[in-house]
């Protein structure tokens, strides 16, 4: 394990080793979603890292930039106005991440999307409208990626994963994270500080877009952290815990965190993340076709309701899937 891998959210000042920083640029696979042969590249990235950058996704950058401007206008409102929209876990939140004592250097908006409409009221109308438009666009990208994920595994039905986030009652969230410079504690020596502590996403998939302020880092399989160069024109796809289970560990959920810039040149980071999960009653278990010959199911079956409840009882950095594993010796997280 490197020094980086041992840094956690209880240790706010972290740095990135030069070797990891160099590796970072080369390590993040890039998938062209418009290319007919992209399923193989998606499968390879999801199996190796659980993470890739998606280009040629079809969402005009202008649309995202307009939403970004509206979101920044919202975050610049007086705190009391923003708090009018809060109703944890949805709506506006500030510093507190989840209900169990985790904190970050951010404020955020969390929206639950039902039937493509933003269900949180009390937001400025234009922002609400733009969020709904963005949501329906990014959902299409997520569906395409989920189909490629299935195709890349040679599944006979390539809609198995995409159906789960599309059905009535599916639990789809949009989170807008804002890491203002003013919220950052002074960090010595120009080193970054943890804006959002390390974790895996509990859902099936997350699709992230950020402005050009850096911060996102992913953990490699050896535990070392690499920075992800921001690219406002692209999306970053995270494999979530539920996808790891559905594929019996063939795809791996990626551990990630945000380490915000420090120093005079630091910029505010704004990220928007789509989280795709099924309806609460939907069962999550390895798809039989993906359990190899002579292999056993590595996870017990559970409903999304059950896993979400377990996630909300856990701390951000916890390895939530451990409690659902059937074979403690064969933990996918232990493989190198
Ligand atoms: C500390 C927590 C925040 C979180 C719920 C949890 O108890 C553990 C998982 C966290 C996470 C990470 C991915 C998403 O940002 C999120 C919305 C989710 O579904 O799980 C957050 C939760 C949150 O911030 O409420
Ligand atoms: O804000 C970011 O860039 C990433 C945050 C994240 O991982 C999350 O909200 O789950
Ligand atoms: Fe995340």
List the helices and strands and how they pair.
Elements: H1 3-6, E1 13-14, H2 18-27, E2 30-32, H3 38-48, E3 51-55, H4 61-75, H5 79-83, E4 91-97, E5 102-114, E6 117-118, H6 125-152, H7 160-164, E7 171-179, E8 192-199, E9 205-210, E10 216-219, E11 225-227, E12 235-239, H8 241-246, E13 256-260, E14 269-277, E15 283-284, E16 302-303, H9 304-313
Parallel strand pairs: 2-3
Antiparallel strand pairs: 1-8, 3-12, 4-5, 5-6, 5-7, 7-14, 8-13, 9-12, 9-14, 10-11, 10-13, 15-16
Helix pairs in contact: 3-6, 4-6
The site of fe (ii) ion has 4 residues, from loops.
Main beta sheet: 9 strands, mixed
Poorly predicted regions are 1-25, 328-336
* C-alpha-based Rg, rounded: 19 Å
Within the CATH hierarchy, at the fold level, what is the topology?
A: Jelly Rolls
- Beta-strand content: 25-35%
| H-E string | HEHEHEHHEEEHHEEEEEEHEEEEH
> What is the number of strand segments?
16
By CATH reckoning, the class would read Mainly Beta
CATH architecture assignment name: Sandwich
Structural class by SSE content: alpha+beta
Secondary structure: helix percent: 25-40%
Overall average pLDDT: 87
Domain Fe2OG dioxygenase: 169-278
Cofactor: L-ascorbate
InterPro entries: DIOX_N (IPR026992), IPNS-like_FE2OG_OXY (IPR044861), IPNS-like_sf (IPR027443), Iron_ascorbate_oxido_reductase (IPR050231), Oxoglu/Fe-dep_dioxygenase_dom (IPR005123)
GO molecular function: gibberellin 2-beta-dioxygenase activity; metal ion binding
